[in-house]
Amino acid sequence: MSSVRRGRESSIATVTEPELSEADFLLRNAVDALPEGALERQLAEGRPLRVKLGIDPTAPDIHLGHTVVLNKLREFQDRGHTVVLIIGDYTGRVGDPSGRSATRPQLDGAEIDRNAETYQRQAMKILDPERTEVRHNGEWLDMPAEDLFRLARTATVAQILERDDFSKRWDAREPISVLELLYPLLQGYDSVAIESDVELGGTDQKFNLLLGRDVQTAYGVKPQSILTMPILPGIDGVQRMSKSLGNYVGVTDPPDETFGKLMRVPDEAMGTYYELLLDRPLDPQRPAVESKRALAREICARYHGEEAAREAEAHFDRLHVERGLPDEVEEGPLPAGDPIHLPALIRDNFGISGSEARRLLVQGGIKLDGEVLDGGQLDLPAARLDGAVLQLGKRRFKRFRSATDV
Predict the structure, then answer these.
(1) Contact partners, residue 347, CB within 8 Å, separation at least 6
(2) Is 266 helix (H, G, I), strand (E, B) or coil?
(3) Where are the domains of the chain?
């Protein structure tokens, strides 16, 4: 296509024209591209495609798991296509049941609106804001009842219950709300409203994306093709990256925290991180610790700059190399209140008495991020303890986080 941009400097990395065809390049790390051959046919039309991604702002921050799909959007954008980022201010009130074994708790509307603002701002760390069409689905989902009835007629209950998460809950006789059953239809109507040619999502969104094609057809709109991307595991290497699970790396996390978290990713997950975040294979001949450092440096530089990445690595070395902190440290929540009473915190988390905790503090036997604590100071601000590692003796460590971060 004549609109392909060559060698453009993006917010992620230098985008160079690959040897692959445009279709092969855009499809190279996708899981599903359906219907088969549809995207290739669309690209052959030689026009800018409308490429859609919907994000429900159910949490205030974007993490590296979200960037897998956002990076793919940027690739479409850099090739002259129109990216439509839909902020699900209305679908977020319903709650996407994808991958859920129970009904989601309903979020407060004001909280969703606050989250939507930060989602949009953080997404522009990856997307080009000048070439991104941002829409809120409240624009069209705040519809009269008659229009909602028409939408509800586009699918059957049997069709909706084919979804894996719904079918499992149905078989287990677990509750499924009528509102949840409507969610895939509401998401599908987004594709009608913006007349999307292509919709992107994680592999857990495959059912929703395909149903969107049916909804478009019912409304006389040419159905979209779909592209699903792999789901990035969290820093535990097992479950999907999620703030609610505490295994995430946020794109706005401080550089020191980003570097430290990525150094905790299990060796067996590094190949996936390289493929999905760095767009290149892991070198199997390279020592694992060097690969992790390279990953952490590159991700820190991407979102915070080269200087911040160097300082984050130096900070990691001061804590974990010079002061002997282990790469993996058990985490726990900070108790409520501010300041935090140290003897009680130590007693409750290290299995010693409060008097023993005071004695260790006085004797200089307790460190915070590698620095010996003043034994005369028994209370510390919660902000100083949030994210910090408390150390007893040579081998006992624990990192504390405020309840809002866990």
Answers:
(1) 353, 354, 356, 357
(2) coil
(3) 22-229, 255-322, 331-401
| CA trace torsion 249, 250, 252, 255 (10° rounding) | 0
Q: What is the mean pLDDT of residues 119-130?
A: 92
CB 378 within 8 A of CB 342: yes
The helix/strand/coil state of 230 is coil
Q: Strand pairing partners for 332?
A: 400
Q: Enumerate residues 6+ apart whose C-beta is below 8 A from 9.
A: 15
**Confidence at 9, pLDDT banded by 50, 70, 90:** very low
Query: Is the preceding omega at residue 233 within 30 degrees of 0, hence cis?
Result: no
* Direct distance between the N- and C-terminal alpha carbons of the chain, in angstroms, rounded to an integer: 46
Architecture per CATH, 22-229: 3-Layer(aba) Sandwich (3.40)
CATH architecture of 331-401: Roll (3.10)
pTM: 0.74
Report the C-alpha gap between 348 and 18 in whole angstroms: 56
Q: Are 259 and 310 in contact (CB under 8 A)?
A: no
Give the residue with greater pLDDT, 98 vs 120: 120
Q: CB 46: neighbour CB atoms within 10 A?
A: 9
**CA dist., res. 216 & res. 293, Å (int):** 46
